[in-house]
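Aim 2 progress update. The chain analyzed this quarter is reproduced below.
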Amino acid sequence: MTKTTEAAQVFERIIREKGADAVHIGMVDPEGEFRDKRVSAEKAMKLAKQGYPFCEVLYFWDIAEETFRDGAFIDRPAALFADTIRTYPFAERSALCLADFTGEFGRRTPRNVCLDQIAKAKALGFDVFSAFEFEFFVFDETAETMKAKDYRDLTHFAQGNRTYSLQTSALHGDLLEGLEETMGVMDVHLDAIHTELGPGCFEAPLVYAGGIKAADDALLFKNFARSYFARNDLTVSFMSKLSPSLSGQSGHLHLSLRDKQGNPVFADRAQPDGLSTAARHFIGGLLQLMPELLAMCSSTVNAYKRLVPGAWAPTASNWGVQNRTAALRVINDNPDATRLEFRVPSADTNPYLALAMMLGAGLYGMENGIEPPAGSAENFYLARPAAETVFPRDLWDAAQRLKASRAATALFGGDFVASFVESREVEFSAYQKQVSEWELRRYLGVV
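Predicted structure tokens:
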């Protein structure tokens, strides 16, 4: 029996066990969007056996669905994954699953790049455990009302909200419980949900998971949170920075490794800060490569509006134990749960690329024995960083650093780097053609 046949049989068994009559197939696109196609359960099982041809245009248009390449836009081989089957939350007797391109074309996809890094960790004897936490704003608006207002002067949900607010939770508990229940149907579990700084601002840390499931959970959380709030005539935003007067929205990533016996790889009670040699080298690799790989976890123009001085976000590669101002925070209060928190990604991050970047750079450090500089408890927001640690200031510079990075090509493959960099250059070029309201107010009638 071939692996394909065996996987198709597993797919069919799970679909039948769920009693699903329909399956929502989510093609994972470069921006982290669930590109939905609803098919009958019988057709889904057929596609699991025979393959799922899908149009390559996903990699030749931008986030506004404007193509930047001419071509025939042919179908490319793709596959459905049995291990991603979940219950669909908005209809009875329905399931969902993820799909992605395979073969040569599949070398460019974020999910496959992430899977490669997880497989590499496995080959080195490590299981990967990780979890994302997302901050987001909720607006008392629909897609129609936002468009009618030209996206200006939008009405925030829960305008009297405060950080860790009992009042917001008490007033809107049913809505928050509904979000948690919706996610639970898909086996996406929230470790908590609480209010954050600003009107209608919330944070939802996800429960950690092994392997690719953590990134899959993050993808599903963001996509189905949009659907959930829209079904309640609200709009959720995962943009990095909505306004100079509002806090940025983070998408922090927690990661740990365990060995084949299930022991925590990053913990060693006998060493300073309880950190093992493997942890130090992982930190060293991530710190060294962070500036040149930044575009992978900060892939929108808007992400760089958060990564500026004074915005409660890192602007350089640094680390510290329990230091929330650091780009990389070590959490070591419990040896069994010793982990690293990557605080650079925004809420708009592609979870597959953020995890691939963190894991790939960390394993690079472990393989090459890279020692990090000393960690610090200083307030990095006020520090003057060394030039080589400073992040690129915008998406264009970040894309050029990634293009020139030998480590990026070695770790993630030339096909991915070339495709991804091209798409980021297109995104930044579209931004450069725009004239902002700030520019009009500042220069019109003066210069």
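The radius of gyration is 22 Å. The chain has two domains: 3-106, 118-292+308-393. These observations will guide the mutagenesis experiments scheduled for the next reporting period.
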